[in-house]
UniProtKB/TrEMBL annotation:
It comes from the Bacteria. PANTHER family: 2-SUCCINYL-6-HYDROXY-2,4-CYCLOHEXADIENE-1-CARBOXYLATE SYNTHASE, TRIPEPTIDYL AMINOPEPTIDASE. Belongs to the peptidase S33 family. This is Alpha/beta hydrolase. GO terms for molecular function: hydrolase activity. Residues 416-509 form the Peptidase S33 tripeptidyl aminopeptidase-like C-terminal domain. Keywords: Hydrolase, Signal. InterPro entries: AB_hydrolase_1, AB_hydrolase_fold, Pept_S33_TAP-like_C, Serine_prot/Carboxylest_S33, TAT_signal. Pfam families: Abhydrolase_1, Abhydrolase_4. Residues 1-20 form the signal peptide. The keyword 4Fe-4S does not apply. Residues 104-247 form the AB hydrolase-1 domain.
């Protein structure tokens, strides 16, 4: 799901392997673990300091805050619990007010595949006094962060790209995405089938038991909201207070997640263009909305003719549209100002003027284009490709691109582009989870979310009949609670986490 960071924004369903799927369902819904899993649920772990080495700033920050860390052992394959095992990294920041302790709040940053071990440190700031009543628990999902990470050795940070303007560009993308999949298969083919959301949910339930809790509370953003919904489906009755922020439509979760999000992106681009036009003296991008949009079109066309040179980076027709899609995802003043600076730099590069990227843009380009970020993109792709099958025939993608190009010329070729999942070495071993339950949850969404659209959050609300939908109206944001800075939203979420009572009806907050 496209990223609050790049991965929070990421279609055929795979046929399940019948024996594995039925066995997994039995494990997931039983009141007690199956005999083969009892040892995992009953294990005792050793809580230690979190710092691992002198350069481990994350661990040092956790230690200073009073957190403790542990490794929890889980089976690689839940249908073969006596087989190979892996370890899941967990952090726990104890409740500061233990006499009024509510329980544990398990956290997930999203992605998929964003490390979450340090998330208790940020979350306690959002929760104000409510944080003192919870043990805040960060869990790095399997194959992420400190949980036996996989890294496919990609030459790039992430795989999301535009298909470009013509068939030659698309063919380059086919070769590029195929190479990424083959690198993963060579390095990690033995574990890729087990990098799935359903297995991550199973790991969470083992963590719950190890923590000694009958039920957990949960806060997840973007993909983390999807993971939370899957957990409520697989493990009914094991959640207390659940907050699902910036959630997508679970029935549309697939390697082609961007499909359907083009209108929200276009509306956000228009809104930013109006903002930038009102500040033409600052950025020089155009004095009217249409003039700013024309500047963007000129940049895209220039990149299609010849890659833009920005410092040491070359930005081609596949990267520039993705930069734009990520840049319009927030209407906060600082985000719009940063994106306007980015477009200003791209405009100069399009006119073949030597230009260096400002610090924020350089960080983003490094993440997208530097192989050092492969450790983040690799597990994200593994999870999405392991969850839901993608069409294998490149012609399916090309037909969709051509069909959509007239309606959505800038964002359609991103939404319909091919991905590594088209070449993944093995189809998913289980069917995706169908979300249909009455679990209580507070779903939080902004109406202008460009990554997991508001329509998607409404769909999740309908699938979870015990939920309430908290809307931040007329706002472009992905990641709302605590991250956007809206006092109304933060107050309502904290009130729910404090009292356990969902709001009456579906409340709306307005800026």
């Amino acid at each position: 799901m496209t990223t609050r960071k790049p991965f929070r924004r990421l279609a055929a369903l795979a046929a399940a392997l019948a024996m594995a799927a039925s066995g997994a369902a039995a494990l997931a819904t039983a009141d007690d673990p199956s005999p083969g899993l009892t040892a995992y649920y009953d294990q005792h772990v050793t809580w230690t300091g979190c710092r691992q080495g002198s350069d481990d700033e994350t661990g040092a920050d956790l230690d200073r805050a009073g957190a403790r860390c542990a490794k929890v052992t889980v089976p690689l394959d839940y249908t073969r619990p006596a087989g190979r095992t892996i370890e899941i990294a967990v952090s726990r920041l104890p409740a500061a007010d233990p006499s009024r302790r509510i329980g544990v709040l398990v956290l997930n940053q999203g992605g998929p595949a964003e490390p979450t071990l340090s998330m208790p440190l940020q979350t306690r700031e959002y929760m104000d006094g409510t944080a003192a009543r919870y043990d805040l628990v960060g869990v790095d999902p399997r194959f992420v962060g400190r949980s036996e990470p996989i890294d496919c050795g990609w030459p790039t940070g992430i795989w999301i790209r535009s298909a470009g303007t013509d068939r030659a560009g698309f063919d380059r993308q086919v070769a590029f995405q195929k190479d990424l999949a083959e690198r993963c298969s060579r390095r990690h083919g033995d574990v890729l089938p087990y990098a799935t959301t359903r297995n991550t949910a199973r790991d969470m339930d083992v963590v719950r038991a190890v923590l000694g809790e009958r039920r957990i509370s949960y806060l997840g953003y973007s993909y983390g909201a999807y993971l939370g919904a899957v957990y409520t489906q697989m493990f009914p009755g094991r959640t207390d207070r659940v907050v699902l922020d910036s959630a997508g439509d679970p029935s549309r979760y697939s390697p082609r997640l961007y499909q359907g999000g083009e209108p929200a992106l276009e509306q956000a681009l228009d809104a930013w263009a109006s903002w930038a036009a009102a500040r033409h003296r600052d950025y020089g991008l155009g004095a009217t909305r249409n003039a700013v949009l024309a500047t963007v079109q000129r940049i895209v066309k220039a990149a299609a003719k010849r890659p833009l040179r920005v410092g040491s980076y070359e930005l081609d027709e596949h990267v520039v549209p993705y930069l734009i899609s990520g840049g319009v995802g927030s209407d906060r003043t600082e985000a719009r100002a940063a994106f306007s600076e980015t477009v200003k730099v791209l405009d100069r590069a399009a006119r073949r003027i030597t230009v260096a990227p400002p610090a924020q843009l350089e960080g983003r380009l490094r993440f997208i284009l530097d192989g050092a970020s492969s450790q983040y993109g690799s597990p994200a792709a593994a999870i999405i490709c392991g969850d839901v099958a993608a069409p294998h025939d490149p012609e399916v993608y090309w037909r969709d691109i051509q069909h959509n190009r007239d309606r959505h010329p800038l964002f359609g070729p991103i939404a319909d582009n091919i991905s590594p999942c088209a070449f993944w070495p093995e189809p998913p071993r289980e069917s995706p989870t169908t979300i249909a339950n009455d679990a209580e949850a507070l779903i939080v969404s902004a109406t202008g979310d460009t990554a997991t659209t508001y329509r998607g959050s409404r769909a999740l609300h309908r699938s979870m009949t015990g939920s309430r939908l908290l809307t931040l109206d007329e706002t472009i944001a992905h990641g709302v609670y605590g991250e956007y800075g809206d006092a109304c939203v933060d107050g309502k979420v904290n009130a729910y986490l404090e009292s356990g009572r969902l709001p009456n009806g579906n409340p709306t907050c307005r800026k």
